[in-house]
Amino acid sequence: MKILGPDLEFPHPNTADAHGLLAIGGDLSVERLLLAYRSGIFPWYSDGDPICWWSPDPRMVFDLKSQKPMKVSKSLRQSRRNKGYHIKENTCFEDVMRACMNAKRGLHEGTWINKEMITAYTALHQLGVAKSIEVFDNDLLVGGLYGIDLKTQGIFCGESMFSHKTDASKMALWYLVEKLTKDDYNLIDAQLYNDHLASLGAIEIDRQVFLSYL
Question: What is the pLDDT of residue 111?
């Protein structure tokens, strides 16, 4: 495992260990984050620990070229018709990140997101690279997601999402899937397997296949 110094470089993703851990250290500068995502690498670590960089195999994705890139349930379709939510893009990026940071997930509260990451990704947002989808109930932010937009490669790297009302995060994801499909994107990178994403239609692909899109 490589310990990163000040030089702007990463080892090849194929050198990651069996869990996908590739390197430790470095920083969250705009330049390093851009290099990471364009190389199929992302940061994921606990607050107070060194920055850990990952490139898992297999990789969880939504395949936007498939006939049904997302499984949309009848109840979700009813929610879109009946709940009156409205969706915006990039109007409150930092609020979305903070809501993701504070989201309750099973028996645990919060995520790997910390103040350092909020500062770093907000800088990417100001450059037009990090983007958010926001779901509102009247003027109240009730759900959303954020991630890194690799427009040239046709990949949106999803980072996290949250929901304060029923189906709000799913609404954000559905909106994103429809938008990116229309814009001829290839994938939404969901990074690591979890049952919730699988239930929505995400699939696992080999790391080499994922890297071939970059």
Answer: 63
